[in-house]
Amino acid sequence: MTDDEEIRPIRRRGLRTGFTTGTCAAAATKAAVLALLSGQVPCTVTVSLPIGREATFSPHRVEQQGESLLCSIIKDAGDDPDVTHGAEICARVWWRESPGLELRGGPGVGTVTRPGLGLEVGGPAINPVPRRMITQVVEEVCGGALGGRGLVVEISVPRGEEIARKTLNARLGILRGISILGTKGIVLPYSTASWRASVEQAIDVAAANGQEHIVLTTGGRSERFAQALLPLPDMAFVEMGIFTGHALKRCAQRAIRRVTLGGMIGKFSKLAQGHFQTHVAGNQVDAVFLAGLAAAEGAPDALVAEMRQANTARHFQELAQAHGLRGVFPCLCRLVVERCSGYVHGRLGVEAIMFDFDGAVLGRAAAAAPGL
């Protein structure tokens, strides 16, 4: 059976690994510092990755800009459909009188405007691991050459602000550019780990900014439908995709008081059975289960038999609507609420809203957490 919303594919064997923006920034920094110290541009630079491997890069662009020197690396995301694939990651370096390393964000690197990201508000959106990688290459190249001097490293990304419009950065409070990211240094093709991390990060930002009601949706369409229905700020809406269990646990950990789940019949039928990772490859829509709900709502035997053979969850929905069995949809929502509330041991108030494929509400149910 097919599901009802598009989801991102799981990583498959044989696909090419790429590199993060953080790795590219470190490589560009190393090339720039080497050129600044020696006056010669290296043909290649090698950087150590957090996973214990090394990677070698060739500088794309080298420019002397007054007292500073700029080098860039073109990001190769491998076979991952990353919006930053092909982006030019630049590092401009120059000496300063006061000792130490100063890391700046230049044009195309976002500015953090909200708490919850583990970065200073007002500072550049350069995450902790890339910061350590950049510091490491500066120490490796300079050694004692700094003397009493300091070094400024400015990371920039031409077209970074344009690229950022294709991301959720603005919703997270990262403005005017992309984030310099990466915890492993590499990009795994179609990585579910990075997708899950982005869901958890979105919840963290909402919680850090005082948002007590979060809307978790199973896909882009259900998010748009929920936004039209619920008057909440953008940061309250998190597209959790297949990671319902992870998202619910994160909400409970961050003391969110109320969660609304928005979705369609395919994902909701899985949640109602207690499947909290809802990828189609992990578990199929169970037509027998859905037909059982219809039977409980008074569906005649012939219709129940037909529903057991439904090709998709949508097919089941169409059969139920055609025969006036609309009560099956609120019933499904009540089961979703029951399962999700139990999953977090009643620590969240949970609501479920099920949409049809045009955005109309088919069913809705809710339960408050104790004390709310």
SSE blueprint and pairings:
Layout: E1 18-19, H1 21-38, E2 45-48, E3 54-57, E4 61-65, E5 68-74, E6 88-96, E7 100-105, E8 108-109, E9 111-112, H2 128-142, E10 150-156, H3 160-164, H4 169-172, E11 174-175, E12 177-178, E13 186-187, H5 192-208, E14 213-217, H6 220-229, E15 237-239, H7 244-253, E16 258-263, H8 265-272, H9 287-296, H10 301-308, H11 313-322, H12 328-343, E17 349-355, E18 361-367
Parallel strand pairs: 7-10, 8-12, 14-15, 14-16, 16-17
Antiparallel strand pairs: 1-13, 2-3, 4-5, 5-6, 6-10, 9-11, 17-18
Give a quick precis of the structure:
The chain is an alpha/beta fold and 372 residues long.
Domain count? 2
- Derived from helix and strand composition plus strand pairing, the structural class reads alpha/beta
Portion in strands: 15-25%
Count the DSSP helices.
12
Distance between the termini: 39 Å
The proportion of residues forming helix, as a percent range, comes to 25-40%
Order of helices and strands: EHEEEEEEEEHEHHEEEHEHEHEHHHHHEE
E-strand count: 18
Contiguous runs where pLDDT drops below 50 for at least 5 residues: 1-13
Main sheet: strands, sense, barrel: 5 strands, mixed
